[in-house]
Amino acid sequence: xxxxxxxxxxxxxxxxxxxxxxxxxxxxxxxxxxxxxxxxxxxxxxxxxxxxxxxxxxxxxxxxxxxxxxxxxxxxxxxxxxxxxxxxxxxxxxxxxxxxxxxxxxxxxxxxxxxxxxxxxxxxxxxxxxxxxxxxxxxxxxxxxxxxxxxxxxxx
Length: 156
What we know:
There is one protein chain. This protein is α/β, with parallel strands linked by helices. Helix content is about 45%, strand content about 15%. It has helices at about 10, 20-30, 50-60, 75-85, 100-105, 110-125, 145-155; strands spanning about 35-40, 65-70, 90-95, 130-135. A four-stranded parallel β-sheet has the order 1-2-3-4, covered by helices on one side. Helix 3 (about 50-60) links the parallel strand 1 and strand 2 (about 65-70). The longest helix is centred in the last third of the chain and has 14 residues, at about 110-125. It is globular and about 45 Å long.
């Protein structure tokens, strides 16, 4: 679960956020070294300002791209991107089994609804999806619901 939250000043000793062009150059170097798989993660990687540019560049380099995501922040642009340039798979972290729990964990009162809409989209365009579940004090009671969600969506 994403738990590191720093402002720019606190993050300086650890390095700053790289630009899309810097990530693309690193991807190019990795490809030249023989790397085949490319995993985009984050925080929520799809909210990175240069995500679409980086994703398309990596896809066009021939990487098998996997996405690790909470699937709650997909925009129309992201759905269009994934529909045209399909990732190899998407691993989605669930934060609960209800919108109420999502609100407690993430602050989004419609979090699970958004995730399930995006799961439906991903499956409709043939992108393999898997779930993981991060257990916290706020969501441990939802554990049985996660199995029901997996069964409902056909995701093991």
